[in-house]
Amino acid sequence: MTLKDPSNNVIHMPRRGQLRHADDASRRRKSHARVIAITSGKGGVGKTNIVANLGFAFSRLGKKVLILDADLGLGNLDVLLGVAPKYNISHVIRGDKTIEEIIEEGPGQMRILPAASGIQELTQLAHDQKMQFFTNLDRLIDDLDILLIDTAAGISSNVMDFVVMAQEIIVVVSPEPTSITDAYALMKVLSLKYAEKSCRLLVNMVAGAREAQDVSRQLGLVIDRFLDIHIDYLGYVPRDDKLTRGVKKQRLVSDLYPEAKASHCFSELARRMLKQAPSSRPKGNTNLYWHHLVRTTPH
Length: 299
Description:
The chain has 299 residues and is of the alpha/beta class. It has helices at 47-60, 77-81, 89-93, 127-141, 157-164, 177-192, 209-226, 241-248, 253-256, 261-275; strands at residues 34-39, 65-70, 104-105, 111-113, 146-151, 168-173, 198-206, 230-238. The chain has one domain: P-loop containing nucleotide triphosphate hydrolases (Rossmann fold, 3-Layer(aba) Sandwich), CATH 3.40.50.300. The chain is built from ten helices and eight strands. It has an eight-stranded mixed beta sheet with strand order 3-4-2-5-1-6-7-8, sandwiched between helices. Strand 3 and strand 4 (111-113) form a beta hairpin.
C-alpha cells in the first residue's frame, strides 16, 4: 500500500497555549508511575483488548495497574472485563462521586476507572472540566506503578488531550489499509499540532512477525519523509481465535487461555516494556503530566 502526502497538502495546525509551570515545590515531586496512552487512528483495531491484556500482564508481574477508560461517551472496557460498575466517570464530572469512589476491581488485581456509555455530553467536555478531572486523577498517581489510558479512536480534541498528557504514546494499527492511513493521520496531528517527537507502534491482528514489520516499514517510510516524529516499533499481537472466544465470554485471553499465542505476546510485551526506560525524547507543547500539572491557555 502506498501512502501519499505531498508537501503542499500538509496541514499546519495552530499550537495550543504555552504551559505555565507551577511554582509550588510540592507539585514538582516525581512520581515513579509510568503513564501510557494507547490510541489509534481508526476504531476496530482491537485497542481496548490490548490495553486490558497488557494491564493484566503488568499486574501478573507484580505492578500496581490502573486503567482509565478515556472513551468517555462510549466506554466498553467494563463490558470486555465482565464488570458491572454502579458509577463511572460521568459521576465524577458531575461532582456526584469522587474519583476514588468509582474505581472497580478487574482481573489480576488491576483496577479500572470506567467510562459512561451513551452520554454524548462527555465527548465534548469543556477545558475546565478536563482540568478538574486531571486534578482528581493526580491524587491516584503516587499509589501506582502504571496508568494505562485507553483513549477513543480518532483525532478529536477530546481524544488528543488524553493522548498528549501521557509520558508514552502507543499507536495501535492493524494491516488494513484504512487503519494504516488513519494511523498516519493521527501521527500527523501529533507532530504538527502538538509538537510530539516520538511514539511507539504496536501492530495488531497480523499473521506473524513479517506482516507486522511490513506494516511498520510502510508507516515508517512515509513518516520519515513528511513528519518530524520518530516511531519506535514495539511489537505485534497475532490473530488468535482464542482472543475472540474470550471476548464473547467477557474474559481476557491472557486470563482464560494463558497458553494462547496472543497471551504469550502480551506477556512478552509487558516484560519488554518494563525493561525499557520511558522515551527520553522531549514531549510536545501540551504535556499535562500531573506532577507538573499546570493550566494551558484555552482558545
